[in-house]
């Protein structure tokens, strides 16, 4: 069986964890291997179900920029999600899978003219703007576009702030609505983004209230304001479930207050990390090490070099302000800890993943794994120095595969925007392990294929 050839989806008889999956993969290796991601597609499904349960009025439009893995896009398309695209390339990638144009919002307030023209050619009508120059540019290139005005938010508590680059303040927003009326452009709604990794629900509540004010002004001027886009920023790491529930509750209350459920306004969002952060676990190998002695104390300290770094999968350290922490397998467990640092494989001194961390003594060839590595990792990775970065290897249980295998047909299908396309309860997408046996060997493979190759 070719374990990772052509990005196979490995289907097992029972659900299991990413750690178990990685351990079995490592056991099958005969030589030093490249880094790889264990991708739990069931986790993505679980996130979708949780979203629909906690915020049933808000239709998720997955932010492709967060992680443009084609199998994630296929699954979310099948589950009924929409898509937030920021470029011609992202629009094309999604539509090539058969996703209809009405399920896409071109949510980049600063667009290249040729990309706007492409959106017109393929029928993507809804797009954002936040300034006069962008409004006039869209008027010239795509006068029939349906516009969504992006307003600024208080994103001071976000991990990645966007307000310094995008969003119109309240005064400017009123002026832009007036300008759109003057040049006969159709504004259909308001959008905002509270910043990636937003740490307070108040930011969403305040932004929803401000959106209502602008929507009311647009209605007063004669526009049919029927779309509210509450953006992204929703947490997706393991352990943030309660915090997401808190945000969802606050959003629901604010929507009920300012946008009663009377069928006049469609509400969408642009979650990215929410869907994929916890689904990806990165496995890396120690390829070199260095022991040093502190001259003052005589204590040993260690530098470990692994086969992925900040130019590859760990670019989130630079771009997403992420502080990754490795997990070790049982054989590396020890009460003796040493001051250590972890470095990537390139020749650049900037390629440092952890500057100071307490670890047991590790050896060349040891593996470590990194949780919550699905957001803003592979989407921005490059092969600097010609070095590979982590490639995805997907796994799911037989039960889950039987439910969603239509999503991974090699011939694109016309996905319908119907969230009832799949009806699952929490046990259908569970990550709980029922037994210790993982059927990896060929004799355990079901007749209807356990390894499915995605073209």
TrEMBL record:
Cofactor(s) the protein needs: pyridoxal 5'-phosphate
Pathway connected to this protein: Amine and polyamine biosynthesis; putrescine biosynthesis via L-ornithine pathway; putrescine from L-ornithine: step 1/1
Single GO term (MF): ornithine decarboxylase activity
SUPFAM superfamilies named among the record's database cross-references: Alanine racemase C-terminal domain-like (SSF50621), PLP-binding barrel (SSF51419)
Limits of the Orn/DAP/Arg decarboxylase 2 N-terminal domain: 42-277
Top-tier EC class: lyase
Active site: residue positions: 347 (proton donor)
Reaction(s) the record says it catalyses: L-ornithine + H(+) = putrescine + CO2
Any one of the GO CC terms: cytoplasm
List of residues that carry N6-(pyridoxal phosphate)lysine: 65
Keywords assigned: Lyase, Polyamine biosynthesis, Pyridoxal phosphate
Superkingdom classification of source: Eukaryota
Quaternary state and interactors: Homodimer. Only the dimer is catalytically active, as the active sites are constructed of residues from both monomers.
Family note: Belongs to the Orn/Lys/Arg decarboxylase class-II family.
Protein name: ornithine decarboxylase
Organism annotation: Adineta ricciae
């Amino acid at each position: 069986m070719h374990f990772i050839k052509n990005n196979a989806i490995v289907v097992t008889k029972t659900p299991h964890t990413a750690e178990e999956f990685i351990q079995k993969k490592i056991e099958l290796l005969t030589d030093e291997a490249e880094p790889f991601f264990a991708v739990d597609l069931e986790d993505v499904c679980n996130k979708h179900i949780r979203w629909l349960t906690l915020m049933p009025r808000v239709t998720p439009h997955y932010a492709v920029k967060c992680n443009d893995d084609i199998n994630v896009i296929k699954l979310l398309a099948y589950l009924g999600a929409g898509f937030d695209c920021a470029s011609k390339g992202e629009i094309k990638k999604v539509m090539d899978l058969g996703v209809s144009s009405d399920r896409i919002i071109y949510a980049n307030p600063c667009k290249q003219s040729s990309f706007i023209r492409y959106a017109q050619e393929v029928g993507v009508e809804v797009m954002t703007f936040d300034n006069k120059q962008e409004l006039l540019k869209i008027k010239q290139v795509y006068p029939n576009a349906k516009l969504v005005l992006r307003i600024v938010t208080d994103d001071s508590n976000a991990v990645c702030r966007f307000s310094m680059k995008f969003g119109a303040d309240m005064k400017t927003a009123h002026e832009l609505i007036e300008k759109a009326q003057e040049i006969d452009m159709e504004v259909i709604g308001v959008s905002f983004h509270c910043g990636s990794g937003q740490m307070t629900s108040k930011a969403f509540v305040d932004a929803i209230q401000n959106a209502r004010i602008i929507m009311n002004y647009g209605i007063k001027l004669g526009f049919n304001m029927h779309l509210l886009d509450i953006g992204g920023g929703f947490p997706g790491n393991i352990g943030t479930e309660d915090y997401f529930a808190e945000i969802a509750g606050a959003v629901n209350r604010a929507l009920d207050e300012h946008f009663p459920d009377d069928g006049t306004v469609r509400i969408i969002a642009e979650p990215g990390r929410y869907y994929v952060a916890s689904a990806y676990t990165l496995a890396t190998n120690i390829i070199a090490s260095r022991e040093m002695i502190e001259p003052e104390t005589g204590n040993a300290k260690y530098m470990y070099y692994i086969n992925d770094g900040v130019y590859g999968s760990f670019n989130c350290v630079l771009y997403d302000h992420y502080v990754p922490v490795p997990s070790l397998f049982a054989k590396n467990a020890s009460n003796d800890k040493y001051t250590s640092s972890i470095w990537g494989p390139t020749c650049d001194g900037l390629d440092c993943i952890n500057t100071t961390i307490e670890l047991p003594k590790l050896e060349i060839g040891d593996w470590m794994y990194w949780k919550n590595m699905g957001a803003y990792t592979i989407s921005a990775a490059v092969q600097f120095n010609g070095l590979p970065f982590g490639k995805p290897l997907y796994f799911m249980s037989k039960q889950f595969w039987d439910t969603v295998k239509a999503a991974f047909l090699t011939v694109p299908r016309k996905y319908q925007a119907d969230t009832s396309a799949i009806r699952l309860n929490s046990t259908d997408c569970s990550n709980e392990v029922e037994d210790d046996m993982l059927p990896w060997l060929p004799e355990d493979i079901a007749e209807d294929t356990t390894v499915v190759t995605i073209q």
